[in-house]
Specification:
There is one protein chain. This protein has one domain. The protein is about 80% helix and about 0% strand. The chain starts with a helix and ends with a helix.
Length: about 120
């Protein structure tokens, strides 16, 4: 049980730390990245707002499980879309692997979240 709790908090914290970089979506690097992938500017801003909302939903323990489920869905769609976008534009494998690694962390967090929920 203690191991599951550690796995949950480590993986969730890594995802949330990465999601907190959404604050920088207005930087030149972010603008170039979204343009490179063919993502409209407005969608990039929308995704960054969604990341910040998802971050709060995942990290705050008092949030009901149903809302956390939807945060996991949103992050999952985002990471799968990122993998697809990087493959579609022919980016180097490193860019695609990064999104896949975060999707794996998300799955690990999700599975451990349910194990903790069942143990209560």
């Amino acid at each position: 049980m203690k191991t599951t709790k550690i796995i949950y908090w480590v993986t969730t914290s890594i995802i949330c730390l990465f999601a907190s970089t959404a604050i920088f979506m207005n930087s030149e690097m972010a603008k170039e990245g979204t343009q490179h992938l063919g993502i409209p500017r407005w969608l990039g801003l929308e995704v960054s707002i969604g990341q910040l909302v998802g971050l709060v939903l995942l990290i705050v323990p008092a949030v009901p499980a149903r809302f956390k489920e939807w945060a996991y869905v949103g992050f999952g769609i985002m990471y799968l879309t990122a993998i697809n976008a990087h493959i579609s534009v022919g980016d180097p494998l490193g860019n695609t692997i990064m999104a896949a690694v975060f999707f794996g962390l998300l799955l690990t967090s999700y599975i451990s979240f349910h194990k903790l929920k069942e143990a209560k």
